[in-house]
Structures are given as C-alpha cells and as structure tokens.
Amino acid sequence: MGFLTRQDIIGARDLPYQDEIVPEWPDSNGESGMVRLHRLQAGDIIKLTNIMSNRPKSDGMFVMFVFCAHDDQGNRLFPFTNDEEFEQAIAELRTKSMEPLDRLQRVAMRLNGMLPEQLQQLKNRLGEAASAARPTTSPISSVA
To answer: Least enclosed by CB within 10 Å: which of 3, 40, 68, 127?
Structure first.
C-alpha cells in the first residue's frame, strides 16, 4: 500500500451513480426514459445545503433532482450557472408528476447517504466515536 498522489485522488472514480428507468417520461423513441442519478461532489453538497437553508423544505425534491440528474455522458440534465437558470429548472420541475420525482429523489438521497435511517446511523456512529474519544477520568483529578 502506497501513499496517494494528487493525480491518484483526482483520478479516482469515487462518485457512484445509478441509472433509473422512468416510464412516466418517455424518450424520443416513445420508450421508457432513463435518468442517471449521481452522488454529489463535495462542493455540490455545500451548495445544496446553502440553497436549502433559504428555501422551503418542500423544494428539496426539486433541488436534489437538479443537482443529481445526469445524462449517460455524465452531464447535468439541468445545468445552471446562475440563480435565474437554477430557478427556471425548479419551475420546470414543479410542472411534472410528483410520483417519478419522489421516486428519483429517494434514489438520489440513498446514493448520498441522506435517507433518514442513513443519517441516524451516521449520527450514532459519530456519537460512539465521540464517546470513545472522551477521557474516562478527568486529567485534573488524576494529577492530584
């Protein structure tokens, strides 16, 4: 086992994805369409968190889809470079059926470790790690 280089880290494929069939949204041939949902990049998680801190919780489904939905080449289906483009994507998605969006959001949340049970497991692990790191006796009392 060797130490990693910058290139090793940058070149690692550490963002899994899942292709999902969406029968409600046919492709150009009239067949069931597919969407590739990606795990978020670290920077996107920060952006998404900041965006959601200023939005109603009900927008989470749309925001998650805008960030996670990609085509088969890995390009975002709803690319945005500014607030106006982002808001346009959200407005467009609001016109779509709730059923496929909800289903796709759950897949995206699972890929990103954001399902309630995943978050609880993380919270439990962090709590256990914090407990294990705490000294069992006070450093001051052991000196006396």
So the answer is: 3
